Amino acid sequence: MLQSFRYMAPRTRPELLDLLAEYGSRAKLLAGGTDLLVTIRAGVHKPEVVIDLKKVEGFSGLSWSQTDGLVFRPTTTINEVLQDARVRKDYPLLAACAHDLASYQVRNRATVIGNVVNASPCSDMAPALLCLGATAVLSSKSGERRVLFQDFFIGVKRTILRPEEFLERIEIPAASAGVKGDYRKLKRIQGHDLGIVGVAVALKGGKLNIAVSSAAPTPVLVQGLDAGIAVEAAVEAVAKATSPISDVRCTKEYREFMIGTYVRRLLQEVRA
Amino acid sequence: MLEKLKAEELRYVGKEARRSEARDKLTGSATYVSDMILPGMLWAQVKKSPHARAKIVKIDTSKAEALYGVRAVLTGAELNYRLGLYVVDKDILAKTEVRHYGEAVAAVAADTLAIAKKAVDLIEVEYEVLKPVLNHMDAMKAEAPLVHPDLGSYDFMKAAFTPQPGTNVANLTKLRKGDVEAGFAEAQWIVEREYTNPSVQHVPMETHVAIVEWKPSDDIVIHTSAQSPFTVRNLFCYTFKLPLNKVRVLIPHVGGGFGGKAGIHIEPLVACLSRKAGGRPVKFQATREEEFSLLPCRSALTYRIKTGVSAEGKILAQKMEMFWDAGAYADYAVNVTRASGYSAAGPYHIPAAWIDAYTVYTNKPYGTAYRGFGHVEFFWGLERHMELVAQAIGMDSLEFRRKNLLVPGNLTLTGEEIFESSGNPRKCLDAVAKSIGYGSLTTEEKAREKRTGRKIGKGVATLHKAPAMPPFTATAAIIKMNSDGTVNVNIGLTEIGQGSTIAFEQIVAERLKFRLDQVKVTIEKDTDRDPYDWQTVASKGLLLTGNACILAADDLLAHAYETSAQALHCQVVDLDHDDKRVFLKHHPNHGVTFTSLALGYAFPDGNAIGGPLIGVGRYVAQGLTNLDKETGQGNPALDWTFGAHGIVVEVDPATGEFHVLKISSAFDVGKVINPESVRGQCIGGMLQGLGTALCEGYIYDEAGHLLNPSFTDNKILTSRDLPDEIECIVVETPQLDGPFGARGVGEHPMISVAPALGNAIQHAVEAELTHMPIRAEDVWRGIRKHEPVDNWITKTPTGSCKSNVLL
Predict the structure, then answer these.
(1) Topology of domain B7-30+473-620, CATH
(2) Mean pLDDT over residues B699-707, rounded?
């Protein structure tokens, strides 16, 4: 069935907050649309109102400051992240995750914030944000809330966002610059595919963070491991934190094996 | 019609020539049925079954009918027509029982697509859900529910097929050659294995679409994205009992077929909607999800092979059992069974052979033709089997293959003699083996293994295929000269991307001795105006239509010479011509131009002779026979195109992940007409074959719901999945009855890619794979000797699948 909805394109942040206050869960926010249009077509979402964020002043691009760190806004695209020189230099794990997300064409439209508010267990950006200690800044008419990403996801396609709230900024601490890390994603083809499992590893200042996608109802973070931890202890810590299932893409057994293998290989790589 | 012309005398055949339609396609200006909107046109939508097997208790269409803008609503109860290519087993809309998930149960035509969609949602269907039979091996059991309890009452093509009423067997093809038991008794080794693969989807870029106008006069116009205009017309008229000249089928550019558009599909339903809507044109286009279940797929197969081998490594006897999963309707699957049955042993000499090939009904979307027509599926098993037999007897598999390849003087499974001119499988196999450096690793490859920790393996696989077609398959070509000396060529064969249009232009230009730009083969097909062609299938177009084009060119020249002889007061035998004139050989300045002959030659005083120049070429396959239904003996093969693939693969021995480093493919095409077209087919087919080798396959839950009817979980390959290196090799052993010696190569590149990959992986990490596709997990299990995962009917339908939402 075709869905009918009203399309609205606020120009300012207060206008947007008003609309969210008015429509709440009857509205869906549109940025890249690479997830939203697919789910609307499939009838998963039947919004009464679609609110386009692309025309809101100050919602685009990315920036960096010593105080706020690296900041992504509601329409910052994956390709903008990939093309940013600072990201490539100081936040290689972000670039690695962004590069594995879908295809070049999709990355032209898809946004970082869209990828995380969608809250798919197989989000490619979540592992990097989790590992790097990123903060989500949630805004509504009643003000701002700041949460770490490990507190943001609460279930398959579920986040702590309230109906009248939106994710306005992602802040990656300046202190996370220079973190060594990489991402491995198991796919069915070399071209764009959803992750069967994805593992990100980040190492800095004697601490080791590991994040895993497609291995639990939400992307999972194992943080603050000792940088010198025995490989098998790290593998075990990750296995304990994850609970992969069998589905049409893969069996539980192979997912478990591949998570362990990727952890081992990534550790060897980042410690090298 | 082999022309004994030396290569250097050929001006167009075998030379590069650009496809005339490419520019329109690349700039988006070529018109497809998908693009078309006709005046007064309505939009159709289909109500589909969410169940694999259920009784239809009640259908209430009243709300849909009451919706403003709805012009016609149809259910199966009012359509007393049955369809079928070979076994007439399918209702246009399900009547009392649905037989597969996604089957059409009602349909609507409305002023807009949105209204049609809403109307379909308003149709209420009450079902009594029944337990489906999903696995084709289960369907063979005596206690299995019958998908077609009335099979015994269905009409079917008796010369070729044998349905078994009271069972789920839509057809049993048998072949008996020599004494198999004696062969096994004599054998030093007997190896018996089973190989399987699931159903897959063709995935044409343009989904199935048709616009049909059933006028009050009962004149019917069908615009459709189809491969075979005359088969659509023929089956349509058979179903509706109409004279052939009342139905006109028009086919513009087609966005891919791959066999999925070979027969007739949505056209009858759309026609009935048009009739009910008072004759307004009605358009239906399938969504991508509908391509997966409303429309047909490629059949799953279970293939058991038992081979007896002598001490010297010669095959003495082979017993083969095929179980083809037809799905709910027989469609092409019965003929896939037949054609695979008589080719089942590949390009090898099997002195004693025994084959039973079953087409089995199940409660799943039905199978149809797909590039390779069964050969992709059974060659997976056959060429893996050759590898495993070689391993079992301790012989190198390339050597084992060489020892058993068909050579001139051998008889095929059906008793047909192989000649030098039949083609050369040995040259193809040797060429790919050489190209990949079979049997050892180079220094570079060894260094790479050391550097990466991954293992490199090399494997080969052979292939062959003859067109699966009636022995009397016919076609024709008409060449019409225009007043400026250019010609238009009309043929009934459709351009579905294979590039045969440019090949025919080259053939006609060569034969007429014209410039290539003087020749245009019409792309759009029209059954009212084009001459008959059976179907655009089977890799037979180049040979049959190519010959018809040569004959039409000869006919056109004969008429031109006849008129010229009168105009020049000479004998035909003294005439020659070039691209502009017909002239006296011994007085080349004395001649007449084609422009003056084209519409009839007029003397200076105005008297005229001849009339418009038209050449007609008719061709029908020669020397073929029906097969004996008990023994499978006879001459079924127009031509055999032999080939081989060689693959170099790099495998992670811990995880089973792998990457294809190189694929080399060789085909004995007889004679290359257009090198780029051959290369295009070679790479396109290889990649399509690699897709079904790597990841494609229908996954169902235990109730028969298709869980992956989209590209989210039914992946196809992308340009990034191309092997690092590709080599396309041609062997040219001229076919005596091929145009300039040519054979078809449309389907062949897709065949045997999977076993070549499986063999290469086995060489790398010793995983014994018997199930296609080969996913990383399958290799991982193969390495660890775990049981393979058969999750095509899965107990764990968890994940992102939203197939029900899209019904």
Answers:
(1) Aldehyde Oxidoreductase; domain 4 (3.30.365)
(2) 94
Q: Quick check: B707 and A248 CB within 8 A?
A: yes
The C-alpha of B268 sits at a distance from chain A's nearest C-alpha, in angstroms, of 24
Each residue's pLDDT tens digit, A139-184? 999 999 999 999 999 999 999 999 999 999 999 999 999 999 999 9
Which CATH code for domain A6-52?
A: 3.30.43.10
Statement: residue A118 has pLDDT above 80: yes
Interval B538-578: pLDDT, tens = 999 999 999 999 999 999 999 999 999 999 999 999 999 99
Among the options B747, B768, B777, B787, which is catalytic?
A: B747
Token pair for B339: 């054609």
CB B271 within 8 A of CB B211: no
pLDDT of residue B797: 52
At the top level of CATH, which class does the domain A179-271 belong to?
A: alpha beta
Taking each helix axis from N to C end, the angle separating B675-694 and B375-393, rounded to the nearest 10 degrees, works out to 70
Backbone dihedral region of A178: left (phi > 0), alpha (psi from -120 to 50 degrees) or beta?
A: left
For residues B755-764, average pLDDT: 98
- The answer to whether the Cβ–Cβ distance between A247 and B796 falls below 8 Å is yes
Verify whether residue B747 is a known catalytic residue.
yes
Chain B residues in contact with A191 by the CB 8 A cut-off are 715, 717-721
Q: In whole angstroms, what is the distance from residue B162 CA to residue B171 CA?
A: 5
- Domain B300-469+626-794 in the same topology as domain B34-131+208-285: no
Is the pLDDT at B803 greater than 50, yes or no?
A: no
Backbone φ, ψ for residue B269 (5° rounding): -65, -45
| A186 with B694: Cβ contact below 8 A | no
Q: Are strands B220-224 and B247-251 parallel, antiparallel or unpaired?
A: parallel
Cβ B713–A249 below 8 Å, yes or no?
Answer: yes
Please tell me whether residue A27 adopts helix, strand or coil conformation.
strand
Domain boundaries, chain B: 7-30+473-620, 34-131+208-285, 300-469+626-794
Chain-wide mean pLDDT for chain B? 96
Give the distance from CA B800 to its chain's centroid. Answer: 32
- Determine whether domain A62-175 maps to CATH 3.40.50.10490: no
pTM above 0.90, yes or no: yes
Q: Which of A189, A246, A250 sits opposite B715 (nearest CB)?
A: A189
State pLDDT tens for residues B587-610: 999 999 999 999 999 999 999 999
> A–B: how many Cβ contacts below 8 A?
79
Architecture of domain B34-131+208-285: Alpha-Beta Complex (3.90)
Backbone angles phi and psi of B12, in degrees to 5? -125, -40
Q: Are the Cβ atoms of A248 and B657 closer than 8 angstroms? A: no
Nearest Cα of chain B lies from the Cα of A15 at a distance, in angstroms, of 32
pLDDT at A42: 87
Could you identify the residue written with the tokens 């296609």? B772
Q: Which of residues 758-777 of B touch A (CB under 8 A)?
A: 775-777
Q: Could you tell me where in chain A the CATH 3.30.465.10 domains are found?
A: 62-175
> Distance between CA atoms of B612 and B558, rounded to whole angstroms?
13
